[in-house]
Amino acid sequence: MIKLKSIIKKLIVSSVILVMGIASANAQVNNIIPFGPGGESDVTARLQQKYYKEMFNEDMVIQYKPGGGGAVAWQSLNSEKNDGSLIMGANLPHIIMQPIANKAKAGYKTSDLNVFTFFHYTPDAILVEASSPHKTFKDLAAFAKKNPGKLTLSGSGTYSANHLLTIQLEKAGIKATYVPFKGTGAAVQALLGKQVEGSAGYSTVASKQGTQVRMLAVASEKRLPAFPDVPTFKELGYNIVSGAYRGYALPKSASLATKKKLSDRLMKINADKNFVKTMEAGGYVVVNIGHDQIDKFMAEQIKINESIAKTLGLIK
Amino acid sequence: MTSLLADFLSALSLINVSLAFVGVMAGIIIGALPGLSATMAVAVLVPFTFSLNPSSALIVLGAIYTGAIFGGSWSAILINTPGTPSAVATTFDGYAMAKKGDGDLAMSISCMSSFVGGMVGVICLALFAPPLASISLAFGPTEYFWLAMLGLTLISTLAEGDNIKSLIGACLGLLLSMIGVSVVGGDMRLTGNIGFLNSGIEIVSAMIGLFCIPVILDLTSLKGKHLNESETPKSLRLVECFSIMTKNKFAAVRGSLIGTFIGILPGAGGSIASIVSYGEAKRTSKNKDNFGKGEPEGLVASETANNATVGGGFIPTLCLGIPGTPPDAVILGALLIQGIKTGNTLFTQQSDIVYTFIFGLALATLIMLPLGLLMGRYAYKFIIKVPKEVLIPSIIFLTIIGSYSIENSILNVYFMFFFGLIGWILNRAGFKASPIVLGLVLGGIAEQGFVQAYIIGNAQEAIFTNYFGRPISISIISMILVGLFYPTLKEKFFKKKVLIND
């Protein structure tokens, strides 16, 4: 009995040490995710984590700083270290729309974030539950045009990529009622439970939910390899390419060399075939927007989002 | 059948059993530390599962999760602070028992109850997952709204003493839940231009403050020991514990079923499960008046329910790909990395992984029983033996670490102290912490459900039927009405009978 007790004591002590050891692992790059664990930002960072260690023999340590749809973390970025030992997730349209919608109350400006790369995006998509009478996007659009506002679409959050898609559709004459939910999971639950007619969601929903849902149209440039039968909005005659872009930012004071080094590393992971394969299987679309293209890309995105904000009446 | 046996045996492989053992142990420790939640525990260990095969990875994550939910009861019992949010109802009777000198008994009851609840949850997961998943889909915004309303009516049951003060406390909680950016509409509410309020009140740090700080202040200002020692300090009081469990078998089964059911509803979670189960137990118990003063039945109700949500929560996670609870969301991410596709085909196409996982979860729950009892013994003895001068700073240290680690932010530590002070003052004035926390937890669910139901009803030009015409809503509404008016009606009819007899 005494032996058993001492073994248990030792086991307890060693697992405490294990847990503490994990918490204080020798960090090389701290990756601050501005959301909680389990979301798309977390999952894709976890995928990178493995390659980062293999390719550069450095640990990528993922930490979470959730709150305010990312705003809590972004407010604090410029008081962090600028030597490249810390990067922070940056998401579109969040970092453009929050400062527009909430003005000074957002606590940061888009230009406060030194975004240096976007490595993937999840295209917006219109989905219906498998048994829905709407077989194609045309059916759905015809229904919405006949009954303006009667088509209910669930989505994640307000002023989010999902929400903005419905505004772009409204501009194109398809007026639906957007029902915001807290997170993609809740929006999908409403879709599968037929609480709503359809969902303005992401392509990732179609990958995760499989045959339970039918993706009618996707807001990517080209058809997705995993879904060769789903048309893009462009093919259907709507000039909509949208979604949630995910990348990383540094504090404003970070040097160009730091920016370049980290951008090159992440782009190198992006070039790995297995990485791309896993990402695509999950419904993510890999994009290679490195530090040299970022300014042009941001300028385009700001323009698109500002025009949507005008439709919403957020800016005059 | 032979394949099921094979899955069972593969769950029992040496590596899986040792992973389950270490997972449960690490889970209990993390869960017992306030602020370090089950979600954190699972998230931290995800990278270490990359090198494992899919079912072993799932088993270790499930084991940590199970252990953490149980571990939350320790700090609830010993220092009146829920280690994880789902242990909030455990504080009501667990801490009261510990104060009286029955802390060791409470620790044993909590372990056994967690075991029973966990097992019922796993059995439901193994046998009824697909049909239960379709029930979870029948819950739309309207049903979530009414469910939150049902939870709020429990305030009158949970409350000790003054009903009016409890109602005021709950209103305060509801008001606090509205702070921050609203999900529907995106407006900034009640933030008063203070940047860090944009994200709203962080529930765990508020809870640590409201429950724990008053205890520390009392401990500092009053003479005497923190907890009274029991008369039989050497044993686990297993016989006594077992007889309590058999006496309350009905409460245990009901708690487990409530926990499983609420677990399958994504977004509801262990805290609501344990509160609803506790409320039901108190409403129907013969020892109603003893609840909140150290009634073992209350502890059984709460602890069976929160561990049953583990198995229940995996039902929508595995069948639908929708995380039932926050830790499930992390596990879902780990599944993607492992290349497993969740959804309606998982049970048919990759059933070997699923059933190995379910057996593994059952194994972890089984391991939790002896391990939890023994480790609980050490934790209890430690809290009892350690002098107050060491205990108080250690608890304060833990609360600071805990509230900091939730979002890696010092602001939550300030929040925690702020709420602690408020909680202490309100306590003096006779307001309890539990109605405030209940309002804070349920406020968001109630509000989002109400507004989403309105938007959908409005689009379909059927607002009234959307609120009052759906079958599940009608049954929840009748439960609310029965809960609210049954005591009054009973009294009335009872009085009439007495009159007739006269």
Short description:
Chain A is of the alpha/beta class.
Biggest interface pair, counts: A-B, 68 and 73 residues
What is the helical fraction of chain B, as a range of percent? over 70%
The radius of gyration over CA of chain B amounts to 22 Å
User: Could you say which overall geometry of chain B the principal axes of the C-alpha atoms support?
Assistant: globular
Task: Please tell me the overall pLDDT of chain B.
Answer: 87
Q: What structural class results from the helix and strand content of chain A?
A: alpha/beta
Strand fraction of chain A equals 15-25%
- CATH domain class name of the largest domain in chain A: Alpha Beta
Summarize the main sheet of chain B.
Answer: 2 strands, antiparallel
Please give the alpha-carbon distance between the first and last residues of chain B.
67 Å
Give the helix/strand layout.
The complex is a heterodimer of chains A (316) and B (502).
Chain A: H1 2-23, E1 29-33, H2 40-56, E2 60-64, H3 71-76, E3 86-92, H4 94-102, E4 114-129, H5 137-146, E5 152-156, H6 161-171, E6 177-181, H7 184-192, E7 198-202, H8 203-209, E8 213-218, E9 243-250, H9 256-270, H10 273-281, E10 285-289, H11 294-312
Parallel strand pairs in A: 1-2, 1-3, 5-6, 5-7
Antiparallel strand pairs in A: 3-9, 4-7, 4-8, 4-9, 4-10
Helix pairs in contact in A: 4-11, 6-11
Chain B: H1 2-11, H2 14-32, H3 38-45, H4 54-79, H5 90-138, H6 141-153, H7 155-158, H8 163-177, E1 180-181, E2 188-189, H9 203-221, H10 238-247, H11 249-263, H12 270-284, H13 296-320, H14 326-338, H15 346-349, H16 351-385, H17 388-407, H18 410-428, H19 433-459, H20 463-468, H21 471-501
Antiparallel strand pairs in B: 1-2
Helix pairs in contact in B: 1-16, 2-4, 2-16, 3-4, 3-14, 4-5, 4-13, 4-14, 4-16, 5-10, 5-11, 5-13, 5-16, 6-19, 6-21, 8-19, 9-17, 9-18, 9-19, 11-12, 11-13, 12-13, 17-18
